[in-house]
Amino acid sequence: MENNNSKDKDKDDPNKDDNDGNKRDKSEVSNNKRRSKTKNKGQQAGPSLEELRVKYDDRLDSNQNSPSTGSRSGNISRQSSAFVDLGQFLDFDDLLPMIGEFGLFQKLLFLFMIPFSFIAAFVYLGQIFMTLTPHNFYCFVPELALIADEAERKQLSIPREEDGSYSHCFMYDANYTAIHFALNRTIYLNSTWPTIPCKNGYVFDHVEMPFHSATMEFGWVCDSDYYATLAQIIFFVGSILGGLGYGRFADLCGRLSALVSSCFLALVGSIFSAMANNFPAFAATRLLVGASYDTCFTMIYILVLEYVGPKYRTFVANMSLAIFYAPFTMLMPWLALGTYHWRTFSALCAAPISLSLLSFWLLPESARWLVSVGQIDNAMELLKRVARRNNKTVPPGVFDHFKFSCQQFYKEELQGRNFTVCSIFKKPRMARYMVLMIIIWMVISLLYDGHVRAASVLDLHNVFVFFSIACATELPGNILVILTLDRFGRRWCAFVFTSLSGIFSLVAASMKNSRHMLGAALAGRFFANICYNIGLQWAAEVLPTVVRAQGVSFIHTMGFVAMMMSPPVVFLSSVSTSLMLIILGILGLLGGILALFLPETLYHDLPQTLSDGAEFGREQRIWHGPCCGPGAKRVKRPQRLWHQGSSLRTISRDEFRSTRMHRVAKTRIGTRKTQISSQDTLATEKMIHTHTFEHGKN
């Protein structure tokens, strides 16, 4: 029945065979012209992409005569040829408009980012509240505990500092048993008594600090005040180990496995944190939680971006952080305050993480990752399911065409895995850019994380309110990035916003009025949010495609190393708040100046190969700007045959880490405007050589 129907359709359309023949004739004429041009240049002629496509169509047409496929394969071949240009391979970004760029399937995935945004906010900010240090406390004297008047207890046991305030860390060395049983305790008031450190713990002001932190429970103040800072450093040590380990794990086992396992690690670490009874146990559990940091949100972030069309990625990448992540960061201090105790806070906030284990049954695996590991048939079934969910009808030949493209790119990807991070340093210009990007990203990471943690010490009387206001700056910061980055370019935006963060930090350090200091510090935090988002994208655009994933991964790892220094910087606030802000201000100015020495990527073709990377930015000057000045116009390059959308190179998760990495950059060619994704395809020359090799092998 199937063959008869196919024959009837062919009879109804007698011009179909003629059209197919004309297409092949035109392709053969163009191929002959290409061969003659190559031969005249004295070079060895190799098959072009058009020849490969015609060869593929001929192979599909030849299946028409086989008993297993019949005329159905012929119809598939004709549909594929009519639907897609024969001169190009079919990329993921070509297929997405056919199966739906932001349909019901993608919208459901977008909503799935909500619980993982909560997990990311809790993992990152939870430890800040668990280790909060109160402002007012004094030594606990058990012999005087029955005295109801707190002022009298302080007068009898606590010496005063030079400014007249009561000491936090010292008590009188006196006979408190005798004082307790004395009928007239005022005779024991003597400010000349010798002092000793606190022996029996501390009394904390629960009116000023209603949340009972681990710092208060374990007494990590005075001589032991470094424990809270050390615990946060250990958290970032776990982040470095987790970032390196999960990067490899995600490549081998998939995005979904990395997502669920990292969330499970955060769940176990948070539950056991609530059971810790000493510093070693607390530090070990925070190491586990730190290992899950970044991965517990990055993987769902990758999954969504890989299924969303290019023109929607800017919205998804930025608004997911603005409308999901930012509100949860604002909510986190109030959750801590509502639970009252750090153990309850750690245990209750870990409960929603257990729901992430259902992701194995609710979320799809990354189709791009399936292709990258050779599971092309599974990827095809998954993409067909996406089309059905989005109510899209796609000709079967399109999927066959895409499958053939995946097979070719997969072979090329296997060859591209020979590149390492060391390949970047083989070219002097690329090596200079890499060193600059590492330093800039470390400076920006330390600046951003320092401002996040500084919110917990700048206003000790209203910690929770000020922290929420500081986190609220994430939303307008993301919006300002969207409005300015594609208009003024990466270099000048990074220079201006990073420098402004440094300037406002220095202004805050010089302020005597506390309200004015808090306002200037909030402005510094606002601009730190912006430069952090810019840095996420910029590194991925400067590095060539063949080393982009590994290079970005290394840069981000160095960022975690820099973040280890932010707790010690914030710890300086115990000595002087101005000193902490001065260090953050100097970092901002340093990062802004260094940003001017990197090349601009807006309106420029992004580098594909190591040779492209060695030449990238050579024609630019330090005053170059995309909107004005020399070099504003894009350098016109020879037209290429390869598709200018995102490539199939998605082996490393770090190609999709950035909140802005999939921004569509506007590229002007004469009077025509085109759009090119920041994740460009591989170099044309490398692709042609690969197919030439395969053709010769056959």
Descriptive key words:
Growth Hormone, Chain: A; single chain; two-stranded antiparallel ribbon; disordered C terminus; elongated; mainly alpha; 698 residues; disordered N terminus
Strand order of the largest sheet: 1-4
Distance between the termini: 36 Å
Which architecture of one domain would the CATH scheme give at its second level? Up-down Bundle
Could you name the ranges where pLDDT drops below 50 across 5 or more consecutive residues?
Answer: 1-57, 59-87, 629-698
Helical/strand content category:
mainly alpha
CATH superfamily of one domain: MFS general substrate transporter like domains
Percent of residues in beta strands: under 5%
Mean pLDDT, nearest integer?
Answer: 75
User: Radius of gyration in whole Å, from Cα?
Assistant: 31 Å
Task: Work out the number of β strands.
Answer: 6
Helix content: 55-70%
- Tell me the number of helical segments per DSSP (H or I, 4 or more residues long): 30
Largest sheet: 2 strands, antiparallel
Would you spell out the secondary-structure blueprint of this structure?
Elements: H1 2-12, H2 15-40, H3 49-62, H4 71-83, H5 92-99, H6 104-111, H7 113-130, E1 137-139, H8 150-157, E2 170-172, H9 176-181, E3 195-197, E4 202-204, H10 214-218, H11 226-253, H12 255-273, H13 279-292, H14 295-307, H15 310-339, H16 342-354, H17 359-362, H18 367-372, H19 376-389, H20 396-416, H21 428-454, H22 463-471, H23 474-488, H24 490-510, H25 514-542, H26 545-563, H27 566-571, H28 577-595, H29 610-615, E5 664-669, E6 672-677, H30 684-697
Antiparallel strand pairs: 1-4, 2-3, 5-6
Helix pairs in contact: 3-4, 4-20, 7-14, 7-15, 7-16, 11-12, 11-13, 11-26, 12-13, 12-14, 12-16, 15-16, 15-22, 15-23, 19-20, 20-30, 21-25, 21-26, 21-28, 23-24, 23-25, 24-25, 24-28, 25-26
